[in-house]
Amino acid sequence: MKKILFILSVSLINLMTIEAQDYAKVIAKDSLKQYNGSKNFYEVKSYNDQSTTQKPTNVIFMIGDGMGVAQIYAGMTANKGHLFLNNFKHIGFSLTYSSEDYITDSAAGGTAMACGVKTYNAAIGVDNDKKPVKTILEKAVEKKMGTGLVSTSAITHATPAAFIAHQPHRNMYEDIAADFLETDIDVFIGGGYDHFTKRKDGRNLVSELEKKGYIVLQDMHSIEHFNSGKLAGLTAPEHNERVSVRKDMLQTSTQTALNLLSQKKKGFFLMVEGSQIDWGGHANDITYIVEEMLDFDKAIGVVLEFAANNKNTLVIVTADHETGGLTLNKGNMADGSMIAEFTTGSHTGVMVPVFAFGPGANQFTGVMENTDIPKKIEKLLGL
Ligand code: MG
Ligand code: ZN
């Protein structure tokens, strides 16, 4: 009898718990997500920005993959209120939707910021009709500027790929690797060695790169000390490890790229990606996000140090989209702690911030399309 009573009461508690959960779900789905729209449209007044317009000779374009405002604030909280990013005074917002989807992926987002066109998710440097669109990096090469790509993922992964490759789908890693042979880029550093060597077509792209005059390096010590010539740094078979393992790979690679590109007479265009903020978001892992966010911020520090000395350098920091629907429900700036909550394991559609520093920075305030960013850069560089 006692046993039966026990089972009954446990069942009742379970039932009540399930009911409570269902109730919470009903609230979340039917009440909190509800917006009835408005018929009261109104005019918005325009204001003139009085800042002077100067033109840079170098542009460093930094992309935190999956880096929304909450990811930045998580990093800021973890570092007790301080980020290199706090130096930026010209700030705007970028609309990230792709041509077909409210929620972009990194391929369409990267293509938008490299080519200035909205395209379908998974597209690499091609438009909606799968036609190649010249990237900002390719235009810089045509103008005899120096060019570079640095990433903590594989260099063939969507974000860096969108600046140099033209393929209908982001998962065509071997075709994307082959596209690196089609452009006269000066330096690229990231993972992806296997996409250049272990290929279905039997080509060895490392030997082909060497024939084109590149030095191909795999270890960070050699990359750190490389100071003249063309460099292909392939630092992992596929993606680089997370920051606790790869250490200061991003900062060191960024510094090496700057050492090489600053020798260019006609200026340079460099894209630097903090790839794995996104992966922390997909994993709903706040520790992963904070670590990768702070690593990216330190790379921003390397870049700001360069830009502060070389006054002709415009620095743009933005994201392709937010990942995880992250928010912070509790936090403490004094001890760097916080409690995170996620709404999804995917990307979200919210605006992402755009930070600008240096000549031309005043062009990057307000709300803009992600496709406006390369257009603005091209205008400033005269591409
Ligand atoms: Mg990426
Ligand atoms: Zn992602």
What are the SSEs and their pairings?
Elements: H1 2-31, E1 58-64, H2 69-78, E2 90-95, H3 106-115, H4 136-142, E3 146-154, H5 158-161, H6 173-179, E4 187-191, H7 193-197, H8 205-211, E5 214-217, H9 220-225, E6 230-234, H10 243-246, H11 249-261, E7 268-274, H12 277-282, H13 286-309, E8 313-318, E9 322-323, E10 327-332, E11 337-341, E12 347-348, E13 352-357, E14 366-369, H14 372-381
Parallel strand pairs: 1-7, 1-8, 2-14, 3-4, 3-7, 4-6, 5-6
Antiparallel strand pairs: 2-13, 8-13, 9-12, 10-11
Bound molecules: magnesium ion and zinc ion.
Key terms for this structure?
383 residues, alpha/beta, ten-stranded mixed sheet, 14 helices, 14 strands, 37% helix, binds magnesium ion, binds zinc ion
CATH topology of the largest domain: Alkaline Phosphatase, subunit A
Please report the distance between the alpha carbons of the first and last residues.
Answer: 85 Å
Q: Give the SSE string.
A: HEHEHHEHHEHHEHEHHEHHEEEEEEEH
Number of helices: 14
Strand content: 15-25%
CATH superfamily of the largest domain: Alkaline Phosphatase, subunit A
- Counting helices, strands and paired strands, the structural category is alpha/beta
Ranges where pLDDT stays below 50 over 5 or more residues in a row are 10-38, 41-52
Number of domains: 2
Assigned CATH class of the largest domain: Alpha Beta
* Helix content estimate: 25-40%
Give the overall shape: globular
Question: Architecture of the largest domain in CATH?
Answer: 3-Layer(aba) Sandwich
Strand order of the largest sheet: 5-6-4-3-7-1-8-13-2-14
